[in-house]
Amino acid sequence: MYIPRAWARETREAALRDGRTVPVSAWGWGDDSARARAKALERLERALERIRSRKPFPRRYEYEARPLREELLQTVSGTDSNETVGIVTRNRYGAQVLNAVQLLFLDVDLPPRGLFARLRQLFARTTPEERALAQLRGALERDGRATFRIYRTASGFRVMAVDRPFDPAGSETWELMRSTRSDQAYARLCRSQKCFRARLTPKPWRCGVARPPGEFPRSEREAEQAFADWLADYEQASARFATCRYLETIGHGRASGDARRLQELHDRMTRCEEPLPLA
Length: 279
Fold this sequence. Notes:
Elements: E1 6-15, E2 21-30, H1 33-53, H2 62-65, E3 71-77, E4 84-90, E5 96-100, E6 105-109, H3 115-121, H4 128-143, E7 148-153, E8 156-161, H5 171-179, H6 184-193, E9 196-199, H7 221-238, E10 244-250, H8 257-270
Antiparallel strand pairs: 1-2, 3-4, 4-5, 5-9, 6-8, 7-8, 7-10
């Protein structure tokens, strides 16, 4: 897992074949501003060289092409060492996210409600949520390699493995994600970023709040003030919601050490034990 502490953007003009010039920008990252700027200049030069040599640009996919450009809010160290076991960041739409080195999270969405599904439900004895939960429970019981906590989210379920570590890029993680029908984009994100991610605070639009203005990092004072105003509105609105709700545990193990510390942080910030609507 690598969450950069500093970001920088560099921009230059590039000449096109027809004589026009266009601005070209590149982001760089690092552990301090100097390294971030050097990385930005390096990536910008590569982009300009592609334009000069008329080479195509690789298809952009933000989650996999580079570290996530997110504000670092909190670092969680191990109980027996100073190694980082988790980092809390703020994502592009303003929610706080837990990035965990070895604490496995699964993101399982409920199936879409199409016309056939709605007609089928007229004659069903169970709800789509009940059937999806039963399938998830069965997959976790068959796996049997860990103790799993299941949470309800606004759009499906979240699973946390509490009593043993997992490798985000490991084959057994990939197999578990496949058997539980975890979201594929989330699975690719975990593998590429070498960490598991779990959103800790509600999505703003589910609380009646727009997305935050601008993007991180905000270098101008006006942009910082606009974001501060947005954050105050978001925190006030999101106080009426929980991010997930604890449902049940599959297995008999218990979290300890680093896993327990991260579980407690997750459960406290998501407010999973409180009787609140989910967002």
